[in-house]
Oligopeptide transport ATP-binding protein OppF
Amino acid sequence: MGESVNLFEIKGVYKCYQKKSKPKVYAVYNVDLNIKKGEVLGLVGESGCGKSTLAKILLKLEQPTMGQILFNGQDITDYSFHQMRKIRNRMQMVFQGNANAFNPHFTVEQIIGEPLNNYSNESKEEKEKKIVSMLEKVGLNKTYLTRYSHEMSGGQRQRIGIARALILHPEFVACDEAVSSIDYALKNQILTLLTDLKQQFGLTYLFISHDIAAVNKICDRVVVMYLGNIVEVIPNINNNAQHPYTKALLAATLIPNPKNRRKNTVLFREGEEIKIPDKGCVFQNRCIYTQEICKNEQPALKTQKEGHYIACHLCHHS
Ligand SMILES: Nc1ncnc2c1ncn2[C@@H]1O[C@H](COP(=O)(O)OP(=O)(O)OP(=O)(O)O)[C@@H](O)[C@H]1O
Ligand SMILES: [Mg+2]
């Protein structure tokens, strides 16, 4: 196998949000991460752990508070809006819940066509042909061209979001909950589509999802985040996950009835306020194995095995 090349490299990235009179919130905390060209990198972790924020930082839709972002070896951390515009067509995002965020006055043709208008000088006919072909790729057809977003189901809108992100044939797509409100059969169809398009266009994806089965299906590697920190990077999340948080997350997700998930696990306590500890391991307050060292020293993300990294004082002894 040839040497892998990084499409993205992020180093020491922090994102801090501070609202007036409220304490600081670190949505992303000291994250180092490489995304290899051609891979599908999964990103999982419970709600609020910083997944969307991290994706937006990669695309510079959010500016990191600290740290560095390299795209194709180029440091884009301080790129201006104007400089980003020149490379924006190479990186796209399927936004979480974007189904509800489309311009209500736009037809499907306008929604999917907007990036084309911004980045290409093709004729109206050529653009329409591309839009119809992309619609077909996401399992819709040209009768949708004149529809407005309120005239479609959540799943249809989600597919419009995917079509829109792919229309410029970007190199990288961050898919933020791209299949979350789609039923099982269609979900599999969209996952297959994402895989086909990846092969066809040599794409790289960041795939954010609460759906572990979907993550397993299409990801080459999975990053697990907890309160802004990466706690584990693992080739296959169902195989040999070791961080106590990853294990708890898997246990929580595997409870069949979604309504019971939050109640039945140590992870999700209703109304519980989770504080980031001042020192030590970020997971110490909820971990069942916490020891003295966990309260005092923050564990570094260390190699467990080739391609498998864990930030836990206790895991490396096993
Ligand atoms: N614009 C913002 N202003 C202030 N706080 C924010 C902002 N965006 C995100 N946050 C906070 O940052 C943290 C991470 O949010 P983020 O949306 O990245 O989480 P997430 O992992 O994508 O969650 P979900 O799974 O629910 O989508 C949360 O505590 C959130 O409240
Ligand atoms: Mg999110």
Residues 51-52, 96, 176 surround magnesium ion (ligand 2) (CB under 6 Å). The first helix runs from residue 51 to 58. Residues 6-90+170-317 form a domain with the Rossmann fold fold (CATH 3.40.50.300). Residues 261-266 have pLDDT under 50 and may be disordered.
